Design the sequence.
């Protein structure tokens, strides 16, 4: 028996063996193809902890000659322990059996078997031959139903077929499996061979700890992004006397401000993606999700953030509420910002203290004369709605990236329900108040209070993310 | 309607036939396939149907003309046939001209003589006579080998060589690259096998033409140099060879033309042979010029008879062989069969009437009365798991409609040569008029075992008997099958192409018309 459990992932061609390996090992570099028979060589993928290999999964070619192979094995009269060795020795020079020799090779090294079938199709004679071959090898084995479509009419047939050959079988959709389902599969493997119980338990424990570590790292990344975005300020002295020139400066600063916020979001997303070992999945793939919409788009503000009522309370909490601002907030979903100034420019005008930019000019008049010009400032954004929109976007991205199986290579599509589609609107009041206090502390520059709040914020985010990712 | 149909199959026409058949073969979608049926049936009924029916090769040749015409009318250009025709016109000229210049160059070099030392006779004979003669002899082995292997070059040696080549190439290719390479190789084998006879003779003729040009270049140069310049040949050897022995060798070589000329015009006399021997130590002054020049006539005769004449004869043989190969073109491969079936077979529809499509002219425009449909007789092999629950009769009816034919028998098979041995041998004994059809599920991957089974079927049926493979899709839920999705069908076709079986027709299941 090998010290490190090794599992050969076997089956008929095009049943999703590579997908199962990819999702189990969180490796999106595992080649997956719609064309059957692309895997011609066994490739081993490992789960490691601090450089130590805890378990291996071997992606194998599919069976190409199951019936003749089974016939040979049934007619075999040599010592049973040498069945595989003799089969490979006698067939290795026959190109027709090249894939059979290759896929059975890991079993010579005492690998266990994960037999993968597509449960959306009926079992056929070839499948029966394959299962019988695996039974004759005498290796510990488990069957996995990896349904490639929603068809469930054949599940009972498959389960009945497995009953003759496999002690354990379970459904595992390699393209949709969550962390919890991966753990379930690993837990099930513990039961197919007693000696693998302890090492596989270690694997499960290590994976759980690693998962918690990822959640904490993601929470930190989101908090860092929020802190930078909510304190971001851009300013410039305009020496021009004409209103038109000052307007141009304002527009330029606004555009730059938007870019900087977008960069902060992108950095946060990269961090989240990296934590979940995604190389193929890209943020720009998320074209269909609300998270992929522009932060300053009207659609984003309609879909994410707080409801009107929640926002009114939040404004009071963070102390940014003037009578006028409350009126505006109550009047329009998006704080009225999209009607004030045609899009993002108007939005930013609204956020700089809930006043249009035209009023800023009055405020900064004396100060600007002192410097020989006008000081034009964009940010920091004090509107609590922005914080909750940013939070929602980050959490949606997290949801997508943490639940995105590594076998999935298509563009992500996340369909959200009508109305407020983010998470924050549905939070407990306690959670929201915590973040509102955080925003208020940031506004006032109370760094001590921010430091005190941060651990609690992280715990809250970890709790929220743990619920979303299992 | 063109009155003067071309009826000769040349390489250009074959290239265009391949082009149009390949285009038709790429029509995977069901609608496209139906369009082909309508188009070819209309062409046949409107322009090609005659009594008695046209022979297959003439029918196909006329169909090709009509397809070309139609494509040209649509503004399409650049058919491969035109390029092939240009190549077949230009290449022989280039080969002949190039070889002529090469031969002249070689002879010019060998006959370099400035009076200091005579030309070595043995070297001249080796390069100007023996070398071209041996190359002509070697070229004869090509058609001989072809005849001995029956046109099948996939013997153990060739297979080992190509296998080794592919295994080396395979190191640089991914799984998909390998698959595509194997498909391409299989398609080439399947298609080129159909015209291998004609192509082989054509290449052989080009080889002979080049050889002829080379020999002519040699002969003309030897003649010209001897005519306008002073040439002197001598022989020398370290071995114990006497002048008498060299003389006898000359007589033996000159035997073929000895009846046409006499010494010294045919070969040097014994005295001239003795007089042209050189011992370098003794110098050249004592040698008589007439003796040294005597070999010139001999050399001219030798080149003419041993270099030029064999090539001329082989060229004649190649042209005759090419004409015979052209006459033997059978056009019995799967794609031609499918085309002929589309043309000759009436399309029967049973059920609800369909509105006529706007763009297609009704058949009545071309034919006055619908002909009685010619029913195909089918022997169908179906995996036994598909025949479960007494579905045999349902399959019989569905297949009859799919093929507009009569299912004479349905055999349950296990897709394993050993287990289906009885079925295969019964199939082999059946008359050629019954078309074997194998039904497989297209949603399953095409594995090696499937290919091996198809090879076994081919062995049972013989090389040229048409075998139709129908790929059915999943069960629609009411016991009826849907077509195999286009992507899976294309994957199957790619994999099946690796077989290189030109008589294997692959078709998708058509959805049932209600």
Sequence:
């Amino acid at each position: 028996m090998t010290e490190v459990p090794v599992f050969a992932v076997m089956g008929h061609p095009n049943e999703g063996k590579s997908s199962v390996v990819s999702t189990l090992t969180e490796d999106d570099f595992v080649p997956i193809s719609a064309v059957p028979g692309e895997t011609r060589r066994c490739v081993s993928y490992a789960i490691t902890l601090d450089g130590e290999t805890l378990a291996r999964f071997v992606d194998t070619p599919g069976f190409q000659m199951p019936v003749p192979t089974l016939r040979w094995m049934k007619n075999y009269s040599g010592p049973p322990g040498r069945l595989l060795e003799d089969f490979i020795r006698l067939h290795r020079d026959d190109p027709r059996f090249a894939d059979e020799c290759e896929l059975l090779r890991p079993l010579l090294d005492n690998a266990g078997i994960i037999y993968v079938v597509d449960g959306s199709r009926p079992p056929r004679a070839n499948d029966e031959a394959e299962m019988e071959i695996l039974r004759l090898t005498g290796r510990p084995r488990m069957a996995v139903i990896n349904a490639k479509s929603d068809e469930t009419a054949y599940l009972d047939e498959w389960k009945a077929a497995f009953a003759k050959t496999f002690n354990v079988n379970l459904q595992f959709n390699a393209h949709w499996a969550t962390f919890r389902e991966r753990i379930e599969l690993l837990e099930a493997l513990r039961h197919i061979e007693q000696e693998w119980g302890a090492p596989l338990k270690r694997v499960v424990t290590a994976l759980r700890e690693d998962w918690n570590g990822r959640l904490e790292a993601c929470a930190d990344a989101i908090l860092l992004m929020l802190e930078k975005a909510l304190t971001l300020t851009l300013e410039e002295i305009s020496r021009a006397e004409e209103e038109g020139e000052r307007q141009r400066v304002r527009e330029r600063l606004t555009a730059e401000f938007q870019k900087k916020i977008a960069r902060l979001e992108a950095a946060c997303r990269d961090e989240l993606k990296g934590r979940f070992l995604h190389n193929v999945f890209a943020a720009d793939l998320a074209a269909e999700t609300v998270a992929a919409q522009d932060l300053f788009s009207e659609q984003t503000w309609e879909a994410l953030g707080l409801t009107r009522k929640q926002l009114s309370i939040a404004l009071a909490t963070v102390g940014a509420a003037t009578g006028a601002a409350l009126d505006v907030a109550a009047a329009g979903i998006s704080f009225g910002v999209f009607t004030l100034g045609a899009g993002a420019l108007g939005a930013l005008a609204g956020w700089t203290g809930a006043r249009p930019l035209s009023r800023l000019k009055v405020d900064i008049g004396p100060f600007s004369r002192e410097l020989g010009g006008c000081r034009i400032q964009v940010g920091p954004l004090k509107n609590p709605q922005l914080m909750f929109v940013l939070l929602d976007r980050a959490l949606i991205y997290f949801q997508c990236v943490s639940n995105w199986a590594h076998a999935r290579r298509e563009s992500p599509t996340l369909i959200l329900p009508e109305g407020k589609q983010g998470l924050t609107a549905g939070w407990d009041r306690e959670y929201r108040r915590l973040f509102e206090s955080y925003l208020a502390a940031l506004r006032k520059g109370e760094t001590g209070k921010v430091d005190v709040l941060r651990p609690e914020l992280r715990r809250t985010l970890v709790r929220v993310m743990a619920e979303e990712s299992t | 309607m063109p009155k003067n149909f071309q009826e000769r199959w040349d390489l250009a026409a074959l290239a265009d036939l391949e082009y149009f058949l390949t285009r038709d073969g790429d029509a995977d979608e069901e609608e496209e396939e139906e369009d082909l049926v309508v188009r070819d049936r209309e062409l046949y009924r409107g322009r090609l149907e005659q009594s008695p029916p046209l022979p297959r090769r003439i029918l196909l040749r006329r169909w090709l003309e009509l397809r070309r015409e139609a494509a040209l009318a649509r503004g399409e250009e650049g058919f491969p046939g035109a390029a092939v025709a240009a190549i077949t016109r230009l290449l022989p000229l280039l080969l002949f001209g190039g070889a002529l210049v090469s031969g002249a160059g070689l002879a010019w070099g060998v006959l370099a003589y400035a009076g200091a030392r005579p030309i070595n006779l043995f070297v001249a004979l080796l390069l100007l006579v023996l070398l071209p003669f041996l190359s002509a002899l070697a070229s004869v082995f090509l058609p001989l080998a072809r005849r001995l292997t029956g046109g099948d070059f996939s013997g153990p040696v060739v297979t080992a060589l190509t296998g080794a080549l592919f295994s080396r190439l395979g190191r640089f290719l991914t799984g998909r690259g390998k698959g595509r390479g194997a498909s391409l190789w299989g398609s080439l084998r399947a298609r080129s096998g159909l015209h291998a006879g004609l192509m082989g003779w054509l290449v052989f003729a080009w080889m002979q033409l080049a050889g002829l040009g080379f020999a002519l270049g040699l002969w003309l140069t030897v003649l010209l140099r001897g005519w306008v310049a002073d040439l002197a040949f001598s022989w020398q050897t370290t071995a114990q060879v006497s002048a008498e022995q060299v003389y006898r060798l000359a007589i033996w070589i000159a035997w073929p033309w000895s009846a046409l000329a006499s010494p010294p015009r045919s070969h040097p006399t014994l005295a001239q042979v003795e007089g042209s021997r050189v011992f370098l130590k003794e110098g050249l002054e004592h040698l008589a010029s007439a003796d040294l020049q005597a070999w010139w006539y001999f050399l001219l005769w030798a080149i003419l008879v041993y270099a030029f004449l064999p090539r001329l004869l082989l060229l004649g043989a190649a042209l005759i062989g090419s004409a015979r190969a052209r006459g033997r073109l059978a056009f019995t491969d799967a794609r031609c069969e499918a085309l002929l079936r589309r043309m000759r077979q009436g399309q029967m529809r049973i059920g609800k009437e369909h509105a006529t499509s706007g763009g297609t002219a009704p058949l009545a425009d071309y034919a006055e009365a619908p002909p009685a449909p010619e029913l195909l007789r089918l022997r169908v092999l179906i995996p036994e798991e598909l025949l479960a629950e007494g579905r045999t009769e349902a399959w019989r009816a569905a297949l009859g409609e799919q093929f507009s034919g009569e299912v004479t028998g349905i055999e349950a098979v296990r897709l394993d040569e050993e287990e289906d041995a009885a079925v295969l041998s019964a199939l082999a004994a059946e008359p050629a008029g019954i078309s074997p059809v194998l039904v497989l599920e297209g949603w399953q991957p095409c594995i090696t075992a499937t290919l091996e089974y198809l090879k076994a079927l081919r062995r049972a049926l013989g090389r040229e008997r048409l075998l139709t493979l129908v790929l059915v899709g999943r069960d629609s839920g009411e016991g009826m099958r849907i077509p195999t999705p286009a992507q899976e069908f294309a994957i199957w076709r790619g994999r099946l192409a690796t077989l290189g079986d030109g008589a294997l027709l692959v078709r998708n299941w058509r959805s049932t018309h209600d």
